[in-house]
Amino acid sequence: MADPQLTVMIPAEVIQGRVRELALEVSEQFQGGPITLLGVMTGSLMFLTDFMRALEVPHQVGVIQASSYCGESTTSGKLTVNIDFLPSLTGRNVLLIDDILDTGQTLQRLVEEIETLDPASLNTAVLLWKQCRTTYAVEPNYYGFKIDDHFVVGYGLDYNDDYRHLADICELRLQ
Ligand code: IMP
Ligand code: MG
Questions:
Q1: Average pLDDT, the chain
Q2: Which of 12, 13, 124, 174 has the most CB atoms around its CB within 10 Å?
Q3: Residues of the chain with pLDDT under 50
Q4: How far is the CA of 151 from the centre of ligand 1 (A)?
């Protein structure tokens, strides 16, 4: 049954097409590879797996976790970074993959953390960019779609850990 709080903002086919385009753009830039994709858990799950299947250069995959304290729907205040599941990044061309760039706090913090591990290069790709809300001095090297200031869920994005499974990206209006 349709959820009255959800409105489709970016349909699945449009997301799929754009993710393929981004993967081809990255494949051209890193001709021959090898690169390491680093997905920010959990929001980048679908973006990461679709992206890697469309990428035409040899690559390794790892994940990193950045979480604000429990129960928060968006980032605010304290951010914890978990690097326990990282492959070795030293001397690798790393592409950090995240679901959404909002204020920029998460991406900036992750970039600082990864730089300490001496990658050969570090680029960033986000599926969505709420540029109107970005206050930190970060810009993604690649982005899928710029969106206005709406709260969105689906295709990995959550509200209190729900809605990640949706194939479309939907605006969530809480009543
Ligand atoms: P930033 O650190 O402010 O850039 O926020 C990035 C994080 O906030 C994302 O990785 C998401 O977890 C969360 N976030 C920001 N906006 C949204 C949204 O519209 N829907 C779901 N999560 C969001
Ligand atoms: Mg996230």
A1: 92
A2: 124
A3: 72, 75
A4: 9
